[in-house]
Specification:
The chain is mainly alpha-helical. It has 19 helices and six strands. Helix 4 packs across helix 5, helix 6 runs antiparallel to helix 19 and helix 11 packs antiparallel against helix 12.
Length: 461
């Protein structure tokens, strides 16, 4: 078909070049945003007297009809069109005739795609935030339910001190809370409208850019038209935010994978989030968690790809920027799928509390509490540290836990030990004595704060 811009050209575009240039196959997903932006633009043109009210109404009715047909499946966003913008304009002209040719007045595809992408990313941020809120609700329920599910806390993958499953998952709640706040601040920063920037230098038509911005829910119109059409910082920042979300999901996936192993046996994944082996009938593999971990690199790749694409571009718009879409769309879809799948896994998994508690007892995770016990008896901490270290070595040699070592053997090392030692180094005491803010013994307050945060965040969505 003839291109909408074909007046300057005397030859048809080479077919391979045309295929290489075409973007409808992936920017078709911008169709709702393209129609929304076009409707706002047309209303502004009529307000400014650039279009008549009759022309405005014809164009708006045509755009509404096109959207309705696409949503019903009667019309497909496809065909021999360069991009989604060309598709919408050509279809409008086909339906309403001459009035449709005025849709593009005072506008370039440069500012058109810029506003479409901002609208799309804004919608994506809102959708991602809702999914994160759902995941955080699930984590908050774990925090509330598992406050007495004792387990070892780790550093260097070595058992360190006793914690609870509630405390452990509380750390992930904080991670995703930061993600949520990052997306919130990004949405505010990016909420400026490039429509009306033209190709790069604005237009001679008396556009009311602030009116268009308000119609589309933006806080203001962008200050510089060259920046308006060439800015993709908001998309870069969104992809980087998704990279951090995926990093958090990947860390949690790694722990679920470890905890599901025969060596840990801390959890049992639900059958609906695991697969079997084609040759080994006993296997139950944590494939979904592994795929989330693996797909993290896919999102990282999209972010880095756009950084490389943008790094050498002179002002203003360049066709290279068409490459901002395919990998970005894939990264957005991937991140949302991973959030949903993690939510489902966490809702359905089972904690093996007996195994977790036994693991905490068997790894000398209460050694610090034994040292603190001596400090409360008046022993300097550095001396207490050395005494407990020697007792741990003694227990290793005897192949026993600290709570299994007789008091007489404790007293051979230090006279400060007494019968109350065993209560002091029990898992319950180890956890409940740590009541400073953020510690495992303060989880009731943490749960209360988490729920309050979620209520407030949900009320603002």
């Amino acid at each position: 078909m003839a291109q909408l811009w074909g007046g300057r050209f005397t030859k048809e575009t080479d077919q391979l070049a045309a295929d290489f240039n075409q973007s409808l196959g992936f920017d078709c997903r911008l169709f709702p945003q393209d129609v929304r932006g076009s409707k706002a633009h047309v209303k502004m043109l009529a307000k400014q007297g650039i279009l008549t009210e009759k022309e405005r109404d014809e164009i708006l009715a045509g755009l509404t009809e096109i959207r309705r047909d696409v949503e019903s499946g009667a019309l497909s966003v496809s065909g021999d069109y360069e991009d989604v913008h060309s598709f919408v304009e050509a279809e409008l002209i086909r339906r309403i005739g001459e009035s449709g040719k005025k849709l593009h007045t005072g506008r370039s595809r440069n500012d058109q795609v810029a506003v479409d992408m901002r609208l799309y990313v804004r919608d994506e941020i809102d959708g991602t935030r809702k999914l994160l809120l759902g995941l955080m609700e699930t984590i908050a329920s774990i925090m509330e339910r598992e406050q007495e599910t004792y387990m070892p806390g780790f550093t260097h993958l070595q058992k360190a001190q006793p914690v609870t499953a509630a405390h452990h998952f509380g750390a992930y709640f904080e991670m995703f809370k930061r993600d949520l706040e990052h997306l919130k601040s990004l949405r505010k920063r990016m909420n400026v409208c490039p429509l009306g920037s033209g190709a790069l230098a604005g237009t001679t038509y008396p556009l009311d850019r602030e009116y268009t911005a308000a119609l589309l829910g933006f806080d203001s119109a962008c200050e510089n038209s060259m920046d308006g059409v060439s800015d993709r910082d908001y998309l870069l920042e969104y992809l980087q935010a998704l990279c951090v979300v995926m990093m958090h999901l990947s860390r949690l996936s790694e722990e679920l994978i470890l905890w599901n192993s025969n060596e840990y046996r801390f959890i049992e994944l639900d059958d609906s989030y695991a697969t079997g082996s084609s040759i080994m009938p006993q296997k139950k593999n944590p494939d979904i968690a592994e795929l989330i971990r693996g797909k993290t690199g896919r999102v990282y790749g999209a972010s880095y790809s756009l950084l490389v694409t943008m790094k050498g571009l002179p002002l203003a718009y360049n066709k290279d920027m068409q490459e901002d879409k395919e990998l970005s769309f894939d990264a957005m879809d991937t991140a949302k799928d991973c959030i949903c799948l993690m939510d489902g896994m966490l809702q359905s998994l089972t904690f093996r509390k007996d195994v977790m508690e036994a693991s905490a007892m068997n790894g000398f995770a209460n050694a610090t509490d034994a040292a603190d016990y001596l400090v409360r008896k008046g022993v300097p901490f550095r001396d207490a540290h050395g005494i407990i270290g020697s007792l741990v070595l003694h227990c290793i040699e005897k192949n026993c836990r600290m709570d299994e070592l007789p008091l007489s053997e404790y007293r051979q090392v230090c006279e400060a030990f007494d019968e109350d030692l065993y209560e002091a180094i029990s898992l319950k005491s180890c956890v409940e004595r740590r009541t400073t803010k953020g510690a495992p013994g303060a989880m009731s307050e943490a749960v209360k704060n988490a729920k309050a945060y979620l209520r407030e965040a949900a009320s603002k969505e």
